[in-house]
Description:
By secondary structure, the protein is an alpha/beta fold. It contains 13 helices and ten strands. 42% of the residues lie in helices and 12% in strands. Strand 5, helix 2 and strand 6 form a beta-alpha-beta unit.
Amino acid sequence: MHITSARRADSPAPINRRLVLLAYECLCTFEFGTAVEAFGRVDEVFGAPLYDLSVASVEEGTFGAQGGIRLVVDGGLELLEAAGTIVIPGWRSVHEPASPRLIAALQQAHSKGTRIVSICAGSFVLGAAGLLDGKRATAHWNSTDILAQRFPAVHVEHGMIYVDEGNIITSAGGAAGVDLCLHLIRRDYGIEVSNRTARRMVTPPLREGNQAQLLQQPVPQRQAKTLSPLLDDLRGNLNTPLVIEQLARQAGMSRRTFLRRFHDATGTTPGEWMLSVRLEKACALLESGMLSIERVAEQAGFGSPETLRHHFRQRLNTSPTKWRKAFGAR
Length: 330
């Protein structure tokens, strides 16, 4: 499954594009497939995958994955030695210890500065290797208590969907793995490439790591009138004040019906949705140009730099200036 191909000389990329995806007996196929889809597919603009992806197995030979699948992969743990990024897509059980050989390989990779990413129960492998000691980390909501009890030196974030600690990044389970993958692409390539990947995967392009894992969103009981034209209009007019009554009239609904349908369609309130859209716009402006903070705040619909900085602190745990330094010139 090794993927190698040339990329455009002017395309940004991490220093070491070799990404090794870990495989193991009773492999978590959803988490594994998520990583392959995000990192291994050809980018439509670059004409090549964003990473040189290969798969390394903990066990030798053919092994099983969830869903009755048998896999043969590129090699064993020796592939980790040259990796720039290692991804652990889940783990067969939070009660199943990782082998001493795997732990040693991860510790050696970490000592050389390799970035290591885990999805869902992969955090338990990192915890057993001691790589989470003194760091924040997360896992699936149903196992974070176990993670905290087993590894007391780890600062477990029970509600976050992913936690970025630099060279160690962990995520919750399921769709949170998608958010983690997009976050990694954003770090390496910037917001445009990350958004392009999100569109291909048909998923929201930006969910902050501190978003709650559990969303009590009921399934709509009936097909709602589409709000797509209204949402597109809001995206194109970020400086327009949100007046619920006006939006409801524009959608041809009562206020109560509009709020219910809006939540059905987006999973949140109009105010929270618009804040996320404005933050996404601000991030794109900060990354792609040298506009002043004042101009970014204006064009993204925040009105003032103070309001922009407030929401960056609250939602992204950083400042606009630090975001530009971290993700600009990609």
